[in-house]
From TrEMBL:
Membrane topology: Multi-pass membrane protein
Family: Belongs to the fimbrial export usher family.
Residue ranges occupied by any PapC-like C-terminal domain in the UniProt entry: 761-817
Record InterPro entries: Fimb_usher, FimD_plug_dom, PapC-like_C, PapC-like_C_sf, PapC_N, PapC_N_sf
Species this protein is from: Erwinia sorbitola
Major localisation: membrane
One BP annotation, GO: pilus assembly
Locations listed in the record: Cell outer membrane
Lineage: Bacteria, Pseudomonadati, Pseudomonadota, Gammaproteobacteria, Enterobacterales
Statement: the UniProt record of this protein carries the keyword Acetylation: no
Name this protein carries in UniProt: Outer membrane usher protein
GO cellular component: cell outer membrane
UniProtKB keywords: Cell outer membrane, Membrane, Signal, Transmembrane, Transmembrane beta strand, Transport
Residue ranges constituting the PapC N-terminal domain according to the UniProt record: 37-181
GO molecular function, one term: fimbrial usher porin activity
Length: 848
């Protein structure tokens, strides 16, 4: 119900006296079995015989019929669905919710409990008493079915995670996500100008549990006066389809994919795979995601790719950066490219690492794939192969894992063991042996690779080794990727020998200092050693009247092909104003050193900007950036100037469009091709919707898409009541959804939009509707209850619309609202006189 009975009270004070007198004088004179009889003599109304209180005669009574309701199980909410209310066998005049087998499946009952439940109404309704302690109560005022049952009946749940029985595959639909960046730069020395346009994204369709996806990336480069033609490229980098298999806690993928393995190196192939998905586990049991760190010398674009496929493009401000939002399914070697606005480029590689391969006791994790290796142009270029791996939790502390690749001229076998050393950390060791036959080799190449991994948090020392690893590969050992390169190009590049990696965190709480170390050392059989390491020290402190100052020092070295790239970055920042901050930074590297002052401000949660000014060896420099989190997309603008060298301007646009049979909307960017929720505000525009990030508003059709949704995680979407327009009301402002990966969820909020006013309703014979009659709008939302003399406080009034009056259990007459819009600027609207007439039967009208 949209309007509570007591919505009447502020506008008609004498009604308050009616209800108080009604209760205090014994208006309810007898209560038995939820039947309520009223003493109407105490009511201060003119026509006591013209009263319809039948709807109030039973406490919580709901007329038999179908109702769209949200379902709340204890404190957790299920999606809105149709709930049938029917008379129970023991009381044909009563009404109770028929809890269907489909609804019971969403409870998340343990199998043993589910096998003991009983049914009635030909197996269509749950016998509530078959589950002692279960209660069900419907409430029309909030359109909610409240179900309470003992937690012991339910499968494991956590604060933000639901069991598979509550996961939703979403609704069918189409989607297009994009990230477009354009950049122009003018060189002041030779007055030349260059243009660059790049983008990437995903096109997709959802059909039931299946997700059909195609990834694209494009680039255009042009330089005036160079004599070189404009370079253009548009590549559909990957075509694939996937779906969740909840019973197996796995993901099935068909098409072009990248091998996801904790044992073997990743490579691209066309085929199918079945991989146990850690994302389907509760959050505290999920895996590790890689992160990318570095230092940008100017406002720069960081491009993270793998085997030619762009995984992420993002702009970072000058100084140290740390990108932590990569998917935890990414494994293997990543290519990092930092494109500076002065035209210089930093390139390096990082090996994504995983913590020691441990599995909980009794659990089995597995990955199976089959197909043929393929290249970026969708051409297969290798033998048919099959690969599989597993990890089994033998006992509390021991895990065994292994796997193999069988592919004709290339075969590999791996085995290992992991041990939880309790207070000493976690350790794993494995060996992989490969055998490969190449056309230009007289005999097969056979070799082994040995790996050891370690992870430990030292609570006594407030430090943590997130990952430490060592790997040694014999000269004739080959990964599948190296085999494919050697088979295709006749050479074997980057023959790895030894690799050390470590990620270490340490807190010096007495000093308020934290340290972060990332180190990687790689040697090869046929090329110089490569070293990459960085050390970050940061401290928060107060100085005199200045509070919450932050000091950070980052030093790094990248050594590739015998050449060192050393650098250091120092920054000091302090809060300034309500949401802003002011900072000083200094950078030193092989080619330059600079000093900058910056100001950053978050204007309103949707708009952010930063301005920088400083000096370097080359002269004065200045830069700035502005980002707007719009309802339809995220827009970013940046500009830079370097005295005597260049000026540059960049623009970025990130967003998407989602279209379904329920509606469509443009929206801000989320994960490309990822999970999202389409929110329907009952066709009302401008309703503020909030997910876990910045709020958005419904479009002109009353639709909005929340894109910051996490798969297999209980997500909340809500209407921001603080920003709700004055002419709108809602019965329920919060909804929850737990969606499978890539799903398009759907949630509808019942919104009553329109002006509010007092009115008097008369019937055609001059009488009034009975006291207690209900007024409904065209959406069948209750917008008012009739008082004595036909007076009613109406909400949701829109010019030219038609409302209906209901009493005695059915519609009795209709009301035509004035064609002239009500004046929303008037604080007290004059009382309206409205005629309630019989509806016109258009089917009986004579044909023209």
């Amino acid at each position: 119900m949209t309007l509570s009975y007591f919505n009447l009270l502020p506008s008609r004070p004498h009604i308050l006296g009616v209800w108080i007198a009604f209760v205090l004088s014994g208006g309810v004179i007898r209560v038995h079995a939820d039947n309520i009889q009223f003493n109407t003599d105490v009511l201060d109304v003119k026509e006591r015989e013209n009263i319809d209180l039948g709807r109030f005669s039973r406490g919580g009574f709901i007329m038999p019929g179908n109702y769209n309701m949200a379902v709340k199980i204890n404190t957790q909410e299920l999606p809105e669905q149709e709930v049938l209310f029917i008379p129970p066998e023991s009381d044909l005049n009563g009404s109770e919710a028929c809890i269907s087998p489909q609804l019971v499946e969403q409870f998340g009952l343990k199998p043993a409990v589910l096998s003991e439940v009983a049914w009635w109404n030909e197996g269509q309704c749950l016998v509530v008493s078959s589950l002692p302690g279960l209660t069900a109560r419907g409430e029309l005022g909030t359109s909610t079915l409240y179900i309470n049952l003992p937690q012991i009946y339910l499968e494991y749940t956590s604060a933000n995670w639901d069991p598979p029985s509550r996961w939703e595959a979403g609704i069918p639909g189409l989607l297009l996500d994009y990230n477009v960046n354009t950049h122009t730069q003018r060189q002041l020395k030779n007055n030349s100008q260059s243009y660059n346009l790049s983008g990437n994204g995903t096109v997709g369709a959802n059909l039931g549990a299946w997700r059909l996806r195609a990834n694209w990336q494009a680039r255009l480069d042009h330089q005036t006066g160079s004599g070189q033609p404009t370079k253009r490229s548009l590549d559909w980098s990957r075509y694939y389809a996937y779906r969740a298999i909840p019973r197996l806690r796995a993901r099935l993928t068909m098409g072009e994919d990248y091998l996801t393995s904790d044992i073997f190196d990743s490579f691209r192939f066309a085929g199918l795979s079945l991989v146990s998905d850690d994302n389907m586990l509760p959050p505290n049991l999920r895996g590790y995601a890689p992160e990318v760190t570095g230092v940008a010398r100017t406002n720069a674009k960081v491009v993270i790719s793998q085997q030619g496929r762009v995984l992420q493009e993002t702009y970072v401000a000058v100084g140290a950066f740390r990108i932590q939002d990569l998917n935890d399914a990414i494994s293997g070697r990543l290519d990092i490219r930092v494109e500076e606005q002065d035209g210089s480029v930093q390139e390096f590689q990082m090996q994504t690492a995983s913590i020691p391969y441990l599995t909980r006791p009794g659990s089995l994790r597995y990955k199976i794939a089959a197909g043929r290796p393929s290249d970026f142009r969708h051409r297969t270029n290798g033998p048919l192969f099959t690969t599989g791996e597993f990890s089994w939790g033998i006992s509390n502390g021991w895990s065994m894992y292994g796997g193999g690749v069988v592919g004709g001229d290339y075969n590999a076998l791996a085995g290992g063991i992991g041990r939880d050393l309790m207070m000493l950390g976690a350790l794993s060791f494995d060996m992989t042996h490969s055998r490969a036959s190449l056309p230009h080799e007289k005999s097969a190449l056979s070799g082994s690779s040995y790996r050891m991994s370690y992870s430990k948090r030292f609570d006594d020392y407030d430090s943590q080794v997130t990952f430490a690893g060592y790997r040694f590969s014999e000269r004739k050992y080959m990964t599948m990727g190296e085999y494919l390169d050697a088979r295709t190009y006749g050479t074997r590049p980057q023959s790895s020998k030894e690799m050390y990696t470590i990620t270490f965190n340490k807190q010096f709480r007495d000093l308020g200092l934290s340290a972060y170390l990332n180190y990687s050392h790689q040697t090869y059989w046929d090329r110089p050693t490569s070293d990459n390491y960085s050390l970050t020290l940061s401290r928060y402190f107060d100085l005199w009247r200045f509070k919450n100052l932050s000091l950070s020092l980052n030093g790094y070295r990248n050594k590739n092909n015998g050449r060192n790239d050393d650098g250091m970055h120092l920054s000091l920042s302090m809060p300034f104003g309500r949401r802003g901050s002011i900072s000083y930074s200094s950078s030193l590297n092989r080619n330059d050193n600079s000093h900058q002052m910056s100001y950053h401000d978050n204007v309103n949660g949707h708009d952010y900007y930063q301005v920088n000014s400083g000096v370097s060896r080359s002269g004065v420099m200045a830069s700035g950036s502005y980002t707007h989190q719009g309802d339809l997309s995220q827009i970013g603008v940046n500009a830079s100037y370097q005295e005597g060298h260049y000026t540059s301007v960049g623009l970025s646009l990130q967003g998407g469009v989602t279209a379904t049979a329920k509606g469509a909307a443009l929206h801000r960017a989320g994960s490309h091709g990822g999970t999202r929720i389409l929110v329907d505000a009952d066709g009302v525009a401008g309703i503020p919707i909030r997910g876990s990030g910045a709020a958005t508003r419904t479009n002109r059709f009353g639709k909005a898409v929340v894109s910051d949704v996490i798969s297999y995680y209980r997500n909340r979407v809500s209407i921001d009541l603080d920003r709700l327009p004055d002419n709108a009301e809602v019965t329920r402002s919060v909804a929850q959804a737990t969606l499978t990966e890539g799903a398009i969820g759907y949630r509808r909020f019942e919104v009553v939009a329109g002006e509010k006013a007092m009115a008097v309703i008369r019937l055609a014979d001059g009488s009034y509707p009975p006291f207690g009659a209900s007024i409904f709008n065209r959406k069948q939302q209750e917008v008012g209850i009739v008082n004595d003399g036909g007076s009613v406080y109406l909400s949701g009034m829109n010019a030219g619309e038609q409302m209906s009056a209901h009493w005695a259990g059915s519609e009795q007459c209709v009301i035509d609202l004035p064609l002239v819009p009500l004046n929303p600027g008037v604080s007290v609207l004059p009382e309206l006189l409205l005629l309630c007439h019989q509806p016109i039967d258009k089917s009986s009208e004579p044909e023209q």
